[in-house]
Design brief:
Order of helices and strands: HHHEHEHEEEHHHHHHEHEEHHHEEHEE
Number of strands: 12
Number of helices: 16
Strand order of the largest sheet: 1-2-5-4-3
């Protein structure tokens, strides 16, 4: 059984140092917090109050939901009221490191007579009808079933867990491992977020220092585009556990020193081998009621960071060879910058420089998910995004590639089209100025119109250098991995060929749309010397090869198969 008492000893090893901060380190921490405020890392008082009001309304709605379901099961008014129901926040909001506009991860805990079907068939409609709710979309088929919503401007993701209890009291504590008995796997996974978050806070020596350091690491990781569990990078929980571990090793230090040690140790660990020498643990892995201490597959992951709450799970199972290498490079660069901050007085703003993803590579994979309604694109693009890691893994097996670098988010657009040709162009992300600037009113005035909702994802391609003595253009054949990825996405049980579409194309950096760049402005390209083509082996590029214009299933009911994505390219 878990306990909420704070431990006398933190972590699985002794601290590296018990020393406290020097005056210089305290001054650096002060300047760090000032920079975080300049970077708008903290939410304002008005937004914080709004969140509290919204959560209060949700708590009341959950009790109403449980009461309604209880009554439908034939229970009396008294028993239905006593059944209770409670919400728990987790993630960045519970950790106290959320910023302006951040979503709130929220868990609904309900008694045993309330089913998961009730969560989607009863609670979701109640949520949609609640005051201030502008969005509510359920995804029951997700690995962890979820309802995504927006309430009074606050984005909230709802999970649901049904405990084997007749009542859920207001003072319910989820730390007791015995609560996991007789639960299905989805409920265990749903409970995991709240249990892990609370355990992390219990296992750090100084919560205030932990929060300041984690807020810094979160901002850095997001600005460098390496903050996304679904894309194969570290997610919020993994970054939090890494920072917590450094806090355990230096229990009396301030945030600036924790950050300095964080990058140094991270880079040392990741450069030692392709697989970390040891998993990261905040406490020993314990036994519990489920007869499993650690899922067997979690022992073989590249960067294992193990959750502290039972049952222990690897929070980094999505990390691939490419995303590990990118994370290693970023930690090395950050370590050098922090070194200059400590030794040369460089400003903290240097650490938070924006990523250069869209100017780093010459070639990209462009994945466009399109649909005919807002509701369809949310579900369809979410499905495509969840499977994009599979494309990266397949691309890593292509001989000519040294890296497949996914960008951490998609770009969503709503396009008002007045011809089938425009619909087709949007589905391939060939969006002209006329479509970009067209208003909904102009579309309604046209004799034929259609609105297309699209989300575009990108994967940067790092090309291996030519082997010594190799003559001619280097071939890059990505037909098989891209076709397999499309097949995988379209096996989704809710895929509708008449309402959804998916296109994967291979583009040059010059073909990237302006709206992927900061502020919608394409940076001035640096001059690059290109090798002159020889007479025996001319250089050809994608734009040199004649191509048949493909049709989108959103413009007509029949589909023309996509041409193979095989083009000669040159190494970076």
């Amino acid at each position: 059984m878990a306990t909420t008492d704070r431990p006398m000893h933190y972590g699985i090893t002794n601290p590296i140092s018990m020393a406290g901060p020097s005056p210089k380190e305290e001054a650096l921490t002060k300047s760090l917090l000032e920079e975080l405020k300049r970077q708008k890392s903290f939410e304002g008082e008005e937004e914080a109050k709004n969140r509290e009001v919204v959560l209060g309304r949700i708590a009341a709605l959950v009790k109403e939901f449980v009461f309604k379901v209880s009554k439908s099961r034939g229970m009396s008014d008294a028993a239905s009221h006593a059944a209770g129901g409670k919400i728990f926040t987790f993630g960045s909001y519970r950790l106290g490191v959320h910023g302006p506009g951040a979503d709130i991860d929220t868990l609904l805990v309900v008694p045993k007579h309330v089913s998961r079907d009730d969560f989607f068939l009863v609670f979701e409609p109640m949520l949609r009808e609640a005051p201030g709710v502008t969005e509510a979309t359920g995804v029951p088929e997700a690995y962890v079933p979820i309802i995504k919503s927006k309430i009074s401007g606050v984005e909230i993701d709802f999970l649901c867990a049904r405990l084997a209890l007749a009542q859920i009291p207001d003072d319910m504590d989820l730390s007791n491992d015995d609560l996991l008995r007789n639960l299905d796997e989805r409920c265990v996974r749903s409970l995991g977020g709240s249990r892990v978050t609370d355990e992390i806070l219990r296992l750090v020596p100084n919560v205030a220092v932990f929060r300041d350091a984690l807020r810094c690491i979160k901002l850095w990781a997001k600005n460098r585009a390496i903050y996304s569990n679904v894309m194969g990078f570290l997610g919020g929980v993994a970054w939090a556990m890494l920072v917590a571990r450094i806090c355990q090793l230096y229990p009396n230090q301030c945030a600036a020193t924790i950050i300095s040690r964080f990058f140094t140790i991270m880079y040392q660990c990741t450069q030692l081998s392709r697989k970390w020498p040891q998993p990261v643990l905040l406490k020993p892995i314990g036994d519990g009621p489920l007869n499993v201490r650690l899922y067997p597959a979690d022992r073989v992951h590249r960067m294992p960071i193990i959750t502290p709450a039972y049952p222990a799970m690897c929070s980094t199972h999505n990390v691939s060879a490419s995303t590990q290498e990118i994370t290693t490079q970023e930690c090395k660069l950050a370590s050098e910058i922090v070194g200059r901050i400590f030794e040369e007085g460089a400003p903290w703003s240097e650490l938070f420089g924006k990523h250069d993803f869209f100017s780093r590579y010459r070639y990209y994979i462009q994945v466009v998910a399109a649909a005919n309604t807002d509701e369809n694109i949310k579900k369809w693009s979410g499905t495509v995004e969840s499977k994009l890691r599979q494309l990266v893994l397949r691309l890593e097996n292509v001989e000519a590639l040294r890296m497949a670098h996914p960008f951490i988010k998609g770009f969503s657009r709503v396009s008002h089209c007045i011809s089938e040709e425009e619909v087709n162009d949007v589905a391939f992300n060939r969006i002209g100025e006329a479509v970009v600037n067209r208003t909904e009113e102009e579309m309604k005035a046209a004799p034929w119109s259609r609105t297309v909702y699209s989300t575009t994802f990108y994967v940067g391609l790092g090309i291996n250098p030519k082997p010594a003595g190799y003559v001619g253009p280097q071939k890059l054949d990505i037909t098989y991995p891209t076709n397999e990825f499309k097949k995988l996405c379209k096996t989704w049980e809710l895929f509708d060929i008449s309402a959804m579409d998916l296109h994967v194309t291979h583009i040059k950096s010059v073909q990237l749309p302006n709206w992927v760049f900061e502020g919608g402005v394409r940076p001035t390209p640096k001059a690059v010397k290109r090798p002159k083509p020889t007479k025996t082996s001319p250089v050809t590029h994608a734009s040199d090869v004649p191509s048949k214009k493909r049709r989108s299933s959103l413009g007509e009911t029949s589909q023309i198969p996509a041409a193979p994505l095989t083009q000669p390219v040159h190494a970076n």
